[in-house]
Write a structure and sequence with these properties.
Oligomer: single chain
Helix content: under 10%
Order of helices and strands: EEEEEEEEE
Radius of gyration: 19 Å
Largest sheet: 7 strands, antiparallel
Length: 101
Amino acid sequence: MFAIVKTGGKQYRVEPGLRLKVEKLQAEPGSQVELPVLLLGGEKVAVGAPYVEGAKVVAEVLAHGRGKKITVSKFKAKVQYRRKRGHRQPYTEILIKEIQG
């Protein structure tokens, strides 16, 4: 059985036992979070409008972290304009415990 869930403005295909890095969630490590289900798949497919009624995915928050550094450079010729910035996107690592529905 699998499910399509939505979190942080993105959609993910999840199965029980999957470790996943998602946009940062406001939850403590070790706590449980419930994610809304857009689609349930398996023997029978259930599509939500927008969410599947009575279905949820239970996940455990493992850790919070920051991704790899991305450098953003801006340059304009002939005007001595140069900018260099770095960015590290925060994330939350979760473990999918079960899919209910």
